[in-house]
What we know:
Blueprint: H1 2-66, H2 75-79, H3 112-115, H4 118-127, H5 138-149, H6 159-194
Helix pairs in contact: 4-5
Amino acid sequence: MELHKTESDLRALDQKVTLLLTKSQQQTARTESLEKKIHALEARNAELETRLKASDHNALSRHLNSLLPTTHHSPSSSCSSHHTQPPPPPLHALHSPSTNTAPKSFPRKETDIRTMPAADVTALLKELEVDVKGVVSAGERKAKLREYVGVGAEGNGGAVVEAAAAEGGRNKAKGGAEEEGKKIVDGVGKKEKGMQLPGKATGPPPGKVLPIGPRD
């Protein structure tokens, strides 16, 4: 009798141990899953931080590049011996958004973009994650690279910005002239209202009686 009871207790204990082991394994699996999610979030956070740093760096570099003088590429300027252009200043390198490091193929100077092979231009645009959808020809891709780097169209330099500023000044001046003309017209109209027409009687206003003095 005692033997049967002992065996029954052992089976019950074994079931409890098995249940505890199962729960422990489940808890371990949940812990491992949570750790994987935490690691994924940390990796994602690091990636976002890298991209944000690269974006801030590229914005500053693009602005600094837009202030650099660009050289004019023409046969006459290359043949002239009287006006020698100074060497182009170095570009501020942009960084790849995924690594926050400058690509090895990034051009050192603005003039280097002109001589870059088409395959290198395409590879650089891809590394910088520039959207080139619909941009097919090599010339268009070089123009896209120049625009993204911040130097603008070839030979333009700050001409686009200066032209926009000049256009704004012209529009402002035109608006001021129109406003001044309107004021002059309004002033003339007011003066004409105050003037009396020739040939019109200039007697006293209706209802007012003039005093009559003594007759001689």
